[in-house]
Amino acid sequence: MPALPRRPTGPLLTDLSGEEGVREAYAAHGAEIYRLAVRGLGDAGAAQDAVQEVFLRAWRARDRYDASRASLRTWLFEIARNVVVDAQRARGARPWLRGLVDHRDLEADAPGAGATADGWEALTRRILLEEALRRLGDDHRRALEETYLADRPYPEVAAELGVPESTLRSRVFYGLKALRVVMEEMEVTL
Q1: Is the pLDDT score of 49 beyond 80?
Q2: 3-class state of residue 109 by DSSP
Q3: What number does CATH give the domain 136-190?
Q4: pTM of the complete model
Q5: C-alpha distances in Å from residue 7, one per residue of 25, 27, 107, 135
Q6: What is 1-128's CATH number, 1.10.1740.10, 3.40.50.10380, 2.60.40.420, 2.30.30.40?
């Protein structure tokens, strides 16, 4: 899989005052926010609505954004987290909406079982890690997924991939280095 193009940077990504700034921010971060919303809500239509709400809230609160405190991406993800939590709470208050969503965890809809900050933080970290992994080369990504994420032994994975174990270890080593670089470019710290 080829590496994704780097996000554009520049003054437009920190300025939501005009239509062009919002358009640039959406182009740079909309897909990641959509994936977060789909995971949180379990419904593509609800996720699209959530993304619209995120950018609407961001535009309305643009005068409160402070680039010295957080990147635009971080600020948008905080808004997205709030929008998804609000949508889940609304769904809990409106039982007729529950049938429209594919729930992975039905206990989350139980009374008093709201989304926790730790749960959302873990979900956000997982989504960002998956996005960073997508930006790696196939060999490095597969080596990391099979050894680190699936917690499989090196000899077993090397045999499955048809490479010597030393080659697999090298791919893991350089894959981790590349992953750090990608995550720095994404302004992510896990």
Answers
A1: yes
A2: helix
A3: 1.10.10.10
A4: 0.48
A5: 10, 9, 37, 12
A6: 1.10.1740.10
